[in-house]
Every structure is written in C-alpha cells, then in structure tokens.
Design brief:
By secondary structure, the protein is of the alpha+beta class. About 25% of the residues lie in helices and about 25% in strands. The strands form 4 sheets. It has an 8-stranded antiparallel β-sheet. Strands 5, 6, 7, 8, 9 and 10 form a 6-stranded antiparallel β-sheet that branches. Strands 1-2-4-3 form a 4-stranded mixed β-sheet, with no helix packed on it.
Length: about 425
C-alpha cells in the first residue's frame, strides 16, 4: 500500500494538516494498515478531528460495501466507509432507514460511530451508537456493547483504531417522502416551549441568530414524519465554484436574509411534502457549500446545555446577535439523554449550533460561548470544534479519565492520535 504526502483541511477550512494518507481498496489491505494511524471518512468534521499533522492516516471512503442485510431482524452489516446517504437511498425503498441520521449524508458509518452522532430524532431514538450491535476493528477485534472497549470506541474519536465494519439496527419505516410541518416561533421562549411540547418523531429548528430585543431567538420549527406517496422531484445538487467574497456574509446581508427566510413561513404555519434527502440532508444539495464562507473558512460552535439553562441560551444569543458575526446557519434542537460512549456529546437539554465566518473577533466570541456552556453544566461537540483549549474540557465530560485510560491501554504507543486529541490533551488527562 502506497502512502501519499497530502495537505487537507477540516470541513471548516480553518485548520489543516500535512501528512501521509493511504486509501485501501479492500478490507484485506486495511488489516495491513491497522496500526499505521487513525482512520478518516469523508473529513466532514469541521475542525481538526480528521487531521493528523506530520503523521499517517487511512482514508476509508472506498471500503463501503454492504456485507449482510437481515430484513427479518432489521440489521445491516456494513463496512465503515459506507455513507449514511447511500444507506438511506438503498434501504428506504425496502422499508428501512438508519435509525439515526446526522445532518449530512456524506458522514460515514465509521465517522458516525467515532462521534456517536445524533439526529433530528435524538429526543426519541437516542444516539447513533445506541443502535450499533457490533463493531469489528481493523485489527480483527470484535466489540459488542458488553465489551468495556465499546464505550471507548463509540464517541471515542477513532482512538481505539480504524473500524473495519459494524452491525446496525435499522428503523422499520415505509419511506417515500417526509411530511413536514413548519411553524414560526416569535422568540426564544416560545421556540423552546414548542420544542418541549412537540410529539413529532423528527424535530429541528432554524434560528435567526441576528434577531434582538423581543424577537431574540425567533425561528422556524420543522416537525417531520415519514410517509408514503407521490415523491416530489428532488432538486439537483449545485456546486459552489469559488470562494464567496467577504461582503456576501456581511452583517447587513445576513440580517436581511434571515428576515426574509423567517417570513417565508406563514404566521399560521404550513405542511409540506419533501424528499427524504431534502429533510435530513438539506445542505448536501449544495456541494462545497463551505466555500460560501470565503477563503479563510469558518468555525462552528455547537453546545448542549441542560433544560434548566434557558437563561444561558438567551445570554449566548444576545452575545451572538450583538457581535455582528453570525451567519444564516444556526440550528436549535431538543436532545434526550441517549448516549453510548464515554465521550458521547448528547445529554438531556437543548443544543445550539451556529456558524461564524473566520474573521477578527470570531475566536474570542466562541471562547466566551464555551465558557458559558461549561458554567451551565453543558458541553461542546468535538465534531464541530476548532477553538476550545485543553483546560475547557474537564468537567464537561465526567467520563474523560475512564476513556483516556481505556484508549491508552488499547493504544499505548499513541498511534491513533489526531490534531484534535493533541490540541485538547484528551489522552493525557489524569
């Protein structure tokens, strides 16, 4: 297997790495690379979770085969490089879906395990790892939820070694389309009340991060249910051919866009029929959408705070709105308690995610938001982070020491470390 020296970035395009990459074509080749370095899927983590500076990493994208599908048991066995969108496309006509799907279909099964991702149904279905029944590492070791190393692997940032394949429990659903109800929320309190009261299977909210005063936290709540019927035509994906100029996300432009976007939903609400991709993976229709933030890239801040921390969310949104740094992309969701690993992000509460163009003041603002998150008893999401410091993490993740002990025992030579685990000193925690 040949290694190629390459420079690559996280999805936010702020942080980069130069190292050696290998791209195995078959599982037999992966086994030979099992101890060379960590695995990378499609590098859709925003910061440096998929970066290995001056090291080696294994790209899993071509190891994407379905190895077995048991319709009676609703279980599928797939290689770790398979993407969530491919699984959804293949399974939906057969009456199944992945039980949990993140906001991009380009995420791989291995990546979803490594981050223990959540979806729009987390309040009911829990996290991705809770539907994984078996993990086979590239070394050949097989993990089940009863194995102590399972909880260090799920949500474990790839630190127990490359994943070769996994068995997933599927959701049984007749899915041709999504029935989506959109409702406006006039401010943060009404938005959070709608999230708390919703009985929908899937919920997600767009929030106007530029709104102030009585409109602070206004937004649009989408509630979705799977359905069968006439499938509307999906819009073909478009590609962003160049980096957007700085003025494209200037504060006045973002405020105008957000005002228009909020107004597109009637005050009385409405119900729409959407293709499943349009509901689950709305940004995937725009290839390379990260270029919209310009050549300097962007940061995303994502946190989850307890349900008792509504005041913290208000304080955060006030800081974001007054900064003039917000983009149109801001998401608010309700999370349940479901999580499967020591470093799994989910906890009972509200999760807020906001994109910020990489410019003067952005890192300082995010540092303030991280401090507020920690003070409220919440945590940040490693899949999105590019700003946090090592001292920010203890306390956010009470099982950090248990995780570090497990992965250091499994990988005593630290072959699977990434730029993120080094930046945050995750494996040196006592």
């Amino acid at each position: 297997m040949s290694w190629k020296k390459t420079t690559w970035t996280g999805w936010g395009r702020v942080l980069s790495a130069t190292g050696e990459l290998a791209r195995p074509e078959r599982s037999a080749a992966l086994a030979a690379l099992a101890t060379e370095g960590p695995a990378i899927g499609n590098a859709r983590s925003y910061g440096d979770a998929a970066l290995v500076s001056e090291g080696r990493a294994v790209i899993m994208a071509r190891l994407d085969k379905i190895l077995d599908f048991d319709a009676a048991e609703a279980v599928i066995h797939v290689e770790a490089g398979a993407t969530i969108s491919d699984l959804a496309r293949i399974l939906a006509p057969r009456g199944f879906l992945p039980a949990v799907m993140p906001g991009t279909g380009f995420a791989t099964v291995g990546g979803c395990i490594a981050m223990d991702v959540h979806g729009k149904n987390h309040h009911g279905a829990g996290s991705f790892g809770q539907h994984v029944t078996e993990i086979t590492l590239a070394t050949g070791k097989v993990l089940t939820p009863q194995d102590p190393l399972f909880a260090a692997t799920v949500g474990g940032l790839g630190q127990t070694g490359p994943i070769g394949s996994a068995r997933l429990r599927l959701l049984r659903a007749k899915v041709d389309v999504m029935m989506v109800t959109e409702r406006r929320a006039e401010n943060l309190e009404s938005f959070l009340d709608l999230l708390d009261e919703s009985e929908a299977t899937y919920t997600v909210g767009w929030i106007d991060a530029t709104a102030t005063g009585e409109s602070l936290g206004r937004g649009i709540l989408e509630e979705g249910e799977t359905g069968a019927g006439l499938v509307p035509s999906a819009k073909r994906g478009r590609r962003v051919p160049f980096n957007a100029p700085g003025w494209a996300l200037a504060a006045p432009v973002v405020r105008l866009f957000n005002k228009l976007y909020y107004s597109r939903v009637p005050a009385a609400g409405r119900t729409l029929v959407k293709p499943i991709d349009d509901f689950f993976f709305p940004l995937d229709r725009i290839h390379d959408w990260n270029r919209l933030y310009g050549s300097q890239g962007f940061h995303q801040f994502q946190c989850v705070v307890p349900v008792t921390a509504r005041g913290t969310l208000r304080s955060m949104l006030e800081a974001i709105a007054s900064s003039g740094l917000a983009s149109p992309l801001a998401v608010l969701k309700r999370m349940g308690a479901g999580r499967a690993g020591h470093l799994s992000f989910p906890m009972e509460g509200y999760t807020l995610a906001v994109d910020f163009r990489n410019r003067t003041g952005t890192r300082g603002l995010i540092q303030e938001l991280i401090a507020e998150t920690k003070a409220a008893g919440g945590r940040i999401y490693f899949a999105k982070d590019s700003v946090a410091r090592a001292e920010d993490i203890p306390g956010m993740y009470p099982e950090l020491s248990d995780w570090a002990a497990a992965v250091n025992a499994a990988d005593p030579e630290h072959r699977y470390e990434t730029d993120l685990t080094r930046r945050l000193s995750l494996r040196s925690t006592k």
